[in-house]
Amino acid sequence: METLELLKALILGLVEGATEFLPVSSTGHQIIVADFLNFTGERAKTFEIFIQLGAIIAVIWYYRERIAHVLRTLGSERASQRMITNLLIAFMPAAVIGLAFNKAIKAHLFNPITVSIALIVGGFIIMLIEARKTQPTVNNTDDITPRTALLIGVAQCFALVPGTSRSGSTIMGSLLCGLSRPAAAEFSFFLSIPTMIAATLYSLYKARDVLSVADVPMFSVGFIAAFFSGFFVVKLFLAYISKHSFVAFAWYRIVLGVAVLAYFWFSGDSLTAVMAD
After folding, report:
1. CA gyration radius for the chain?
2. How far is the C-alpha of 158 from the C-alpha of 94, rounded, in Å?
3. How far apart are CA 105 and CA 133, in angstroms?
4. CA separation, residue 21 to residues 86, 112, 147 (Å)
5. Taking the model in full, what pTM does it have?
6. What residues does each domain of the chain span?
7. Through-space distance between the first and last CA atoms of the chain, rounded to whole angstroms
8. pLDDT per residue over 187-237, tens digit each?
9. What's the top EC group for this one (predicted)?
């Protein structure tokens, strides 16, 4: 295993963990960074899928006490039953649509140009949502209704377009449904657990022929990096949004999207190749 390949795995793992739970699109960042690192091909795509598990385990570990309580009291507490029910309801729309259109999405939309456009459009949408002068009506995830959970699940479907951001879609959808910023972020984190575990395991199963024992060091480095950066970012993100809006993330998306579009625009051959993909 070459040192350079391990370094690429480390960088991509850090990027995955740092962006998975922010409204900036981890998939978009992975596509862009992997393109810059010349880390492409089926093996690279499988690696990018696998390291998502590291980020997911980070959020499970962060909420380990809350998750353990829900599971322990599932048969006796209404709040725990409501949480599981809402997560299942919110999970279903993206699961159904993702299974139906997964192949077409990966064939036509997984490229830096699509990601850039989605980043920019998503940034303006975040600004529009944040510009509203409404007060939240739901300040705790325990108060989410099944109808609201379904609407958040529908919002998550937009994240099937690379660059849109799963967390961005669910958090913005939650805000539109009346959730406070902390409650929206927390429900987004909980929803990421079944959504990403299912999507990751399904994708790994389909790519099982690409995996080999020789890839263990590279996959391990990426997994561990994603775990630690994910845990660190979740903690900082929750502290940040308790006092600030998501406008800074909107501007980040727009600036990054424009920068990447400019990069591919001025390198004509690369732009043609990316659009052809």
Report:
1. 18
2. 8
3. 36
4. 19, 20, 24
5. 0.88
6. 3-276
7. 29
8. 999 999 998 898 888 888 888 787 788 888 999 999 999 999 999 999 999
9. hydrolase
